[in-house]
Amino acid sequence: MKYKQPKYQSMNPKVVLGIRIVFGLAILFFGCNKLFYFMDPPAPSTKIAGSFLRVLVSSKTMMLVAIVEICAGIALLANRFVPLMMVILMSVSVNAFLYHLKLDIKHWYIGVVFLGLNILMLYIYKDQYKDLLKSQ
């Protein structure tokens, strides 16, 4: 099946391009930072949040999250498989949102921004999901 460029309904294609590039750069940056540690992340505001992060790092789960984020960032910047990456990235965005909401409320805006951008991108590409959501 040939890939169809999405119809952006009422959104300006340049705005969509800007959102896609900003989101792609941010996801790529934070994914690379999880692997290469070139910038210190904000310190967790609670003891339990710090413990949770240590478990994620020691179990190599954070490395898997980083790989997903790097792949999604590259796909967004290359404009390849964007609808698929938005579905895959939704699990990361929801978990980041819940982590900040429940364990690290001081940095709540991080989870909200990424979840909001992910939902916006899902909305922009909603026509790509019609066949997937169609009942048989």
List the helices and strands and how they pair.
Elements: H1 13-36, H2 47-58, H3 61-78, H4 82-102, H5 108-124, H6 130-133
Question: How would you sum up this structure, described in words?
Answer:
- This protein has 136 residues and is mainly alpha-helical.
- Helices cover 71% and strands 0% of the residues.
- It has helices at 13-36, 47-58, 61-78, 82-102, 108-124, 130-133.
- α1 (13-36) runs antiparallel to α3 (61-78), α1 crosses α5 and α3 (61-78) crosses α4 (82-102).
- The chain is globular.
- The two termini are 19 Å apart.
- The model has no long low-confidence stretch (mean pLDDT 91).
List the defining traits of the structure above.
mainly alpha, 6 helices, single chain, 136 residues, globular
- Quickly give the structural class: mainly alpha
Strand content: under 5%
Write down the Rg. 16 Å
- State the end-to-end CA separation: 19 Å
* Helix and strand run: HHHHHH
Helix content: over 70%
Low-confidence stretches: none
User: Helical element count?
Assistant: 6
The averaged pLDDT comes out at: 91
The major β-sheet equals: none
